[in-house]
TrEMBL record:
One of its GO terms (biological process) is cell wall organization. The gene is murA. It comes from Hominenteromicrobium mulieris. This is UDP-N-acetylglucosamine 1-carboxyvinyltransferase. The keyword Metal-binding does not apply. The lineage of its organism: Bacteria, Bacillati, Bacillota, Clostridia, Eubacteriales. Pathway: Cell wall biogenesis; peptidoglycan biosynthesis. GO terms for molecular function: UDP-N-acetylglucosamine 1-carboxyvinyltransferase activity. Its main location: cytoplasm.
Amino acid sequence: MEEYELEHTGCARQEAVLVRGGNRLCGELTVQGAKNSTLPLLAAALLCEGETVLHNCPALSDVHTAVTILRRLGCRCTHTGDTLTVCADGMTRCDIPHSLMREMRSSIVFLGAILSRCGEARLSFPGGCELGPRPIDLHLEALRKLGAEIREEHGCLLCTAPGGLRGGFVSLAFPSVGATENLLLAAARAKGTTVLTNAAREPEIEDLAGYLNRCGAHIHGAGESCIVIEGVPHLYGSTYTVMPDRIAAATYMAAAAVTGGTVLLRDVNSEHLLPVLSAFESTGCAVMQSGSELLLRAPQRLKPVRHVRTMPYPGFPTDAQAPVMTMAAVGDGTSIFVENIFESRYKHAGELNRLGAKIKLEGKVAVIEGVPQLSGAPVSAEDLRGGAALVIAGLAAQGETQVMHPQYIDRGYAHFEENLRALGADVYRI
Ligand SMILES: CC(=O)N[C@H]1[C@@H](OP(=O)(O)OP(=O)(O)OC[C@H]2O[C@@H](n3ccc(=O)[nH]c3=O)[C@H](O)[C@@H]2O)O[C@H](CO)[C@@H](O)[C@@H]1O
Ligand SMILES: C=C(OP(=O)(O)O)C(=O)O
């Protein structure tokens, strides 16, 4: 075992992804473990006595940040390959510095876990990709229902749970993924029973509950709108395999699709992908599933995607909106997208237009008139999925595309260029 040092690139600002378009992508790929599952699972390690051993952790800068937070809290973190081992028995602190909080949105899920473990927590507001306002009012409201006292001072959240957290009734005004996770983490060891209604139903919630239950928690109904958590006094660290990343899978499918290619993905949970599979099928792609494998075969020219409306799970995931928009951009006809989750998640559209796409925006609606051919140009990633979408568009474009600020892509895709090269793409980090 070595001290944890995942080989994330932590790249400097002047780096770019260089794509020479035109190659048809063909081949096989094993999909990484889910970022959005790994991060709350690492926070869950704080609640456990003994070691948490997580297999299938992707090598991402966000995972690196989560491990840095854990180490700063006094946890021991080691890794072998994609297995991370965390022991929180020697935890010494209950605060996270602003510099780490602002690195990623998921830093906020440490709040529920630290509060439960220490009875107090001090941290600031989380950072992450700019997708419009991303308040945490629902997280704080939910934790207050469990007895937390939270004050905001100079941008810092000062949280205590005098007498410990107690179970309670919580109804979320919106099925927020992060607020649901924070509540599961806070309630798992609270005194008494917590009932959460209008909970997020994303598969990552089930993964978190699955791990906590393996450690001794009593959580019922994860994956449904009503979750019941009977608090237990102790949780014991366990071994667990992170679920496959449904958004990474959709991204590689889109990459193959825009090049008229064929890709066989391994380690996929097709059930989690149902909301996006119909979008692929509407473009004329053939999709075949067998066990944990999924085969996508794209036609030479895609049909339009027609309609995409992002919604909480089981609706179409907002995280797949940008990659799928690249397919609409080269489809034979007009597609209409409606982004219902985040206020400002179309920053990639203007950059796609630089590559020759025809996308018009009006509020939450994007109208995409497919063009037969994109043409390479310098563009800039403004967020994680938008950055991946620009690389995908570059694969379909004639000539060279340079995508600046690839550090966004490193937040969510492990070995992105390497994986695309394995499928035949001409793509390099420069
Ligand atoms: C690390 C992680 O898992 N990130 C995912 C998580 O983000 P995240 O957990 O931040 O997303 P939420 O489900 O909380 O946010 C959805 C919507 O609710 C709003 N909201 C949320 C919390 C709150 O306290 N108040 C509030 O108004 C947000 O501004 C947003 O408009 O779910 C999103 C929606 O599927 C995904 O795009 C992100 O990839
Ligand atoms: C928006 C995302 O992540 P985060 O919530 O961590 O910013 C994402 O994974 O697409």
